[in-house]
Amino acid sequence: MSRSQLDTLIHMANQIAANNAHYGDDAAERVHTHLKKFWARSMKRLIVEYLHEDGSELSPLARQAVELLAQGQAEARPTSA
User: Fold this and answer.
1) Could you name the domain of life of the organism this protein comes from (predicted)?
2) Is there a contact between 9 and 46 (Cβ–Cβ < 8 Å)?
């Protein structure tokens, strides 16, 4: 994915977060659920990679949601023996 595609994902995540901010304490979980349900695996992987590498352009709420997404991805990975 190109930088412009990453910029688009960052913008989308921030917009989703802004549109859900009025849910207060439930907002991050709602944004996380949206990303999990509606974003392609490649989109989720890229935004999580961005969070780990920098993440500075994500709004605080979008960052929380992507952190939840990253936790879910880590938990879904099989553990090696």
Assistant:
1) Bacteria
2) yes
pLDDT in tens, 45-71: 999 999 999 999 999 999 999 999 999
- Whether 81 is covered by a domain: the verdict is no
The model's pLDDT over 13-35, given as tens digits with 9 standing for 90+, comes to 999 999 999 999 999 999 999 99
64 occurs within a structural domain: yes
CA distance 42 to 24: 29
Which pTM does this prediction carry? 0.89
Amino acid at 77: R
| 19 assigned to some structural domain | yes
Q: What is the DSSP string of 48-59?
A: HHHHHHT-TTS-
Alpha carbons 37 and 32: distance in angstroms, whole number: 9
The total number of structural domains that make up the chain: 1
CB contact at 8 A, 35 and 13: yes
